[in-house]
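#struct-help
A.M.: can someone run this one for me? Single chain, 406 residues.
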Amino acid sequence: MQPVSEQLRVLLDGAEEVVPADELERKITASAKGERPPLRVKLGVDPTTPDIHLGHTVVLRKMRDFQRMGHTAVLIIGGFTAQVGDPSGRSSTRPHLSADEVDANAATYLEQVRKVLLDEPLEVVDNRGWLADLVMRDVLGLASRMTVARMLERSDFHSRYTEGRPIALSEFLYPLLQGQDSVEVRADLELGGTDQTFNLLVGRDLQAAAGQDPQCVLTMPLIEGLDGSAKMSKTAGNTIGVDEEPAEMFGKAMRVRDDLMEKYLRLVTDVHPDEVDEIVAGLAAGSRHPGEVKRRLAREIVTLYHSAQDAEHAEARFNTQFRDRTVPADIPEFDLGQHPVWSLPALLREAGLVASGSEARRMVTQSAVRLDGEVLADPVAELASDQVIGGVLQVGKRRFVRLIRR
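D.P.: on it. Structure tokens below:
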């Protein structure tokens, strides 16, 4: 276990708030001296989608920091709470998911989470193990720990209530269920985003009521997406997914706004806080060029989820594609088969350049589709296969296929 000063330097770097800060330092100090076991650091994740992006990894990486310092990560998969739906930051009630939907999401979600967390020390538990067996007496007991007035102190609930938008009673129960998770795993610390502060503090209350030492709370900032303003989310379409291909990941990272580079370096890479300080100072003094720092950021991100070699190849491809203004040599190929004619939306979809026909039409109308460098402006165009064999079909700046016929 690292010295307390080094632990605090790393563990508190980038954190938004610690409640109570002196209590966390006391727990870490006692653990370092062997006066108590390593901290049990809890993070609850609801698998409401099958994939995670860098926004999700901010708290996951902070949990990994605790693992590196010798503390135990307790990852709670919200098999039960995902079906209820976390109301945090929502302006409307979240649609409920079925158990089958949650299970399907959890399979890939957990696989991607393990790309961030260390294998040890780690406990992974599903809160269906205790929440699914609650009876009405238990639910009423939990509900008695909270007042409606306190619930309406939450900014999202307060605004929805004053604006006359509905709040389901199940949403009031969600913070209590999350807090009960802390009781069940005897958490010493719970991690979450700043939008989770209310829920995390409820966990402290329920632990105190259960006679446990209340957990500390450490919140992390919500990271802006590639548009530089909205929180990174699939809904906003501004994400970098942890399962994306190296070239796609590198290209997206190069779109991060200059004023967000420090935040990204601190929150989504392994660069030590001291080195981040040096980089930021260099940018301010003019001794470091923003473009080179952004390349460093992009390489760090690709290396984390792929490899250093993949990062090197992705950067070379980026250079070819954008700096040298030529098409990469290693683009994938798409076999036109025996179709004499392809509709443009169908070709884009089948070639894997878009996810759907509607996306294809949208990209065409945005002048984002090119064939051998020429913009294709007709969303219902039909292309004769014999005339496009060998051509390069492109969507946006990073998606290419070479059209062939075997």
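A.M.: thanks! The longest helix spans residues 169-185.
D.P.: also worth noting: The chain has a mean pLDDT of 91.
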